[in-house]
């Protein structure tokens, strides 16, 4: 469970989020929508505790912003997969190594690394491309690899910030379908987007960020 209670986030004297409550349950699929500058990325950064709230508490599973220690953050982030716009692939490494990278960082055994990486690449339909260099892939394929990298630790929650931001409409729908498949297999997905085309006529939960508040949007 991810819970933000009475959270206010202020940068300088500019309040971006004002005393909000938001809860996301395991297995949910949630779109975060709102105009540019509304605070979607800020919400996601609060969830993975890249920033701490000015007031209130963010809790993710057993971790709380009120008392998390620096050494605990890598463990928190193993329960969260992160697909952010500025998290790029390493161009000079192949697909396999890009996905394996975080596992080397956390000191995993190479036998386990291979199994986990091939599993994550299978989930996104790119196992056959594993020896290609990142720069040899299309934009949509690169984004799939970024998603595989986020999935490699089998996170409970996948946080995606504008994952379709740089893709054409067809590829955007493919990436969204991939996220839905991942959700069907049990991972909660929280996706920030200002692509209203993608969220129109959806059955999933839509949370709008506006004027410092969050609202559940009910589609007609
Ligand atoms: N580190 C920071 N320092 C100062 N202001 C910040 C910082 N991070 C975000 N802001 C401000 O907070 C507000 C919300 O930013 P945020 O990036 O969360 O918006 P967003 O909804 O993700 O927008 P976009 O759709 O353009 O990605 C903006 O006004 C932004 O300028
Ligand atoms: Mg943003």
Q: Helices, strands, pairings?
A:
Layout: E1 2-11, E2 14-24, E3 29-33, H1 40-47, E4 55-60, E5 63-64, H2 73-78, E6 80-83, H3 95-105, H4 110-123, H5 139-151, E7 157-161, H6 169-184, E8 188-192, H7 196-199, E9 205-210, E10 213-217
Parallel strand pairs: 3-8, 3-9, 6-7, 7-8
Antiparallel strand pairs: 1-2, 1-4, 4-5, 9-10
Helix pairs in contact: 3-4, 3-5, 4-5
The structure holds adenosine-5'-triphosphate and magnesium ion.
Put the structure in a nutshell.
It is built from seven helices and ten strands. The protein has 220 residues and is of the alpha/beta class.
Fill in the keyword field for this structure.
binds magnesium ion, four-stranded antiparallel sheet, single chain, Rossmann fold, 27% strand, binds adenosine-5'-triphosphate, 220 residues, six-stranded mixed sheet, alpha/beta
How would you describe the overall organization of this protein?
The chain has helices at 40-47, 73-78, 95-105, 110-123, 139-151, 169-184, 196-199, and strands at 2-11, 14-24, 29-33, 55-60, 63-64, 80-83, 157-161, 188-192, 205-210, 213-217. It has a domain at 1-79 and 190-220: Rossmann fold. A 6-stranded mixed beta sheet has the order 6-7-8-3-9-10, with helices on both faces. A 4-stranded antiparallel beta sheet has the order 2-1-4-5, with helices on one face. The mean pLDDT is 92. The chain contains 7 helices and 10 strands. A hairpin with a 2-residue loop joins strand 1 and strand 2 (14-24). The two termini are 28 Å apart. The protein is globular, with a radius of gyration of 17 Å. The structure holds adenosine-5'-triphosphate and magnesium ion. Magnesium ion is lined by residues 40-41, 161, 192. The site of adenosine-5'-triphosphate has 11 residues, from helix 1.
């Amino acid at each position: 469970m991810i819970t933000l209670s009475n959270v206010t986030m202020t940068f300088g004297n500019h309040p971006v989020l004002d005393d909000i409550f938001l809860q996301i349950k395991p297995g949910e699929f949630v779109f975060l929508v709102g105009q540019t500058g509304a605070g979607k990325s800020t919400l996601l950064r609060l969830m993975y505790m890249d920033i701490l709230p000015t007031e209130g508490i963010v809790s993710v599973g057993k971790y709380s912003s009120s008392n998390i220690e620096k050494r605990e953050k890598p463990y928190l982030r193993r329960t969260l997969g992160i697909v952010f716009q500025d998290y790029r692939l390493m161009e000079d490494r192949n697909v396999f190594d890009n996905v394996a990278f975080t596992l080397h960082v956390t000191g995993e055994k190479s036998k386990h690394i291979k199994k986990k990486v091939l599993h994550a690449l299978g989930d996104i339909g790119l196992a056959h491309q594993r020896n290609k260099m990142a720069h040899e892939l299309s934009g949509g394929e690169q984004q799939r690899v970024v998603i595989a990298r986020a999935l490699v630790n089998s996170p409970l929650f996948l946080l995606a910030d504008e994952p379709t931001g740089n893709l054409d409409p067809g590829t955007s729908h493919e990436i969204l379908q991939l996220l839905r498949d991942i959700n069907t297999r049990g991972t909660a997905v929280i996706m920030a987007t200002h692509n209203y085309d993608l969220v129109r006529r959806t059955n999933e939960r839509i949370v709008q960020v506006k004027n410092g508040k969050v609202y559940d949007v009910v589609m007609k």
